[in-house]
Structure formats: C-alpha cells, structure tokens
C-alpha cells in the first residue's frame, strides 16, 4: 500500500494551467496594484513547492560520510517584475492552444498565437520597498502567444491547456 499524505497537502497544489489562469486571465481591465498581490502570493507559495528548490545537499568532511540535507533560509517576499493580464475567459485562451504551433522564445515548438488581438493589461514594477510592491498599469490591445501542454489530471478537460504567456 502506498504512503498516506494529509489531504490538505494535496488540496493546496495547483496545476500549471490553474496557476496560469490566476496569473494571467481576467474578464476585463484591471488595476495592477489590486491584482498583483495575488500573483506575487502565488509566486511566493509555489517557488518552494519542490523540496529540492528549498534545500541544499552537503557532504560531510569524511570520504565515506553520508549526505546531509540542510534547509536554506526562507526567501523574502518577492515582487514580480512584470506581468500581463489577458482580458478574456480561460476557455477562449485555451482555444488558442488549438491554433497552429509556432516556436516559443525558449526554442520549444508548443506556442500558439491568438487569432485576433485582445485587450490586455501590462503591469510593470515601479517600486519594491521591503516587499511592498507598486506597479504601473498599462492598457494594451494586441495579439498574445501562449505555450500549451497536455492537461494535468485536475485540469479542465481540454486537449491542450495554456501554461505560460510567451
């Protein structure tokens, strides 16, 4: 029988598509100083999701000594430098994943450009004082490109889902 995990530990994990939706999808224009705290909180919460990110392995001074695991100090609250919100539904953005593939900025071939320009809000960090993040709000109207992957088990049943705004 497999190991038992507390329900809360699994319930708090989000899929990549769910994180994308929280970080980038809104039904209409937003004020960045109102929306970015949720994005920054998500970023802070999930930067340590993989225990290997927040831990460092060290060997002892002896040749045959065991590996020891030492936790790193917690990182201070982070302010994301920039973020873009798409003024559309998740359903419509996910439909973009069905459009022809194109090469992403990272060289992978899982990106898709929107068929039409849409309203967007671009948020640019203008001040970070001890984790107090302040942003400029810049309205835009343009095409967008998303990277798409197969859905994870807890995702909505689409053939592909957006996971990154390219």
TrEMBL record:
It is found in: Cytoplasmic granule; Lysosome; Secreted. The keyword Ribosomal protein does not apply. SMART domains: RNAse_Pc. One of its GO terms (biological process) is antibacterial humoral response. GO terms for cellular component: extracellular space; lysosome. Pfam families: RnaseA (PF00074). InterPro entries: RNaseA, RNaseA-like_dom_sf, RNaseA_AS, RNaseA_domain. Keywords: Antibiotic, Antimicrobial, Disulfide bond, Endonuclease, Glycoprotein, Hydrolase, Lysosome, Nuclease, Secreted, Signal. Signal peptide: none annotated. One of its GO terms (molecular function) is hydrolase activity. Residues 13-166 form the Ribonuclease A-domain domain. It comes from the Eukaryota. Interacts (via N-terminus) with bacterial lipopolysaccharide (LPS). PANTHER family: RIBONUCLEASE (PTHR11437), RIBONUCLEASE K6 (PTHR11437:SF4). Belongs to the pancreatic ribonuclease family. This is Ribonuclease K6. The gene is RNASE6.
